[in-house]
Design a protein that fits this description.
The protein is mainly alpha-helical. It has one domain (2-167): de novo design (two linked rop proteins) (Up-down Bundle), CATH 1.20.1440.20. It contains seven helices and no strands. It has helices at 2-57, 64-78, 84-105, 109-113, 115-150, 154-160, 173-176. The chain is rod-shaped and about 90 Å long. It starts with a helix and ends in a 6-residue tail after the last helix. The relative contact order is 0.14.
Length: 182
């Protein structure tokens, strides 16, 4: 009888461990899926950037350095082998340059009147909105995952199986700055 009770307790514990492990794996996969969604949107933006840069280059002779830097960042972000952390950093840099470029584009009346540039700007704005939505989804998945690995009893198994906290996407200091209106 004690042997049956011990076997039953061991079986229950094994089922609990398997269940917790599977729940953590599902949460981790949700985070990876959400990051992949961001990656898809960043790829769309990287595909739009050369078209926008080429369209703007003829009008914005004074902004050539910014356009060249944006092109270089796009090439780095599109390169194979870039880690997720590197892609996030490059994304942050590209976002800042794009915001500045769009603001400076207002000073070029011919550029504002260009139908191609206007269409590309609209497309880029759509992609930026989709990136923001994908980041919100990613942050929700990361929050759920981080909570799952920190609550008892999963926290006992999470470290043992190599589950670690994931960082959230956070706004940079430039993103938080109040824009000047002129």
């Amino acid at each position: 009888m004690p042997l049956i009770a011990t076997g039953l307790i061991a079986a229950i514990l094994l089922v609990l461990v398997i269940s917790l492990y599977n729940r953590l794996v599902r949460a981790r996969n949700g985070v990876e899926n959400a990051f992949a969604s961001i990656d898809v949107q960043l790829k769309q933006r990287c595909d739009l950037i050369p078209k926008l840069v080429d369209s703007m280059r003829t009008y914005m002779t004074h902004e050539r350095g910014t356009l060249d830097e944006l092109t270089q960042l796009r090439e780095k972000a599109s390169a194979a082998g870039a880690t997720p952390a590197e892609r996030v950093a490059l994304d942050t840099q590209m976002s800042g340059l794009m915001r500045g470029l769009m603001a400076r584009a207002e000073a070029y009346p011919d550029l504002k009147a260009s139908e191609t540039v206007t269409l590309l700007q609209r497309s880029l704005n759509e992609v930026e909105a989709q990136i923001a939505a994908a980041r919100r989804t990613y942050n929700a998945a990361v929050t759920s995952f981080n909570t799952a690995i920190e609550v008892f009893p999963a926290n006992l198994l999470a470290g043992m199986f190599g589950f670690a906290r994931r960082p959230l996407f956070e706004a940079t200091a430039d993103d938080r700055a109040v824009p000047g209106v002129r």
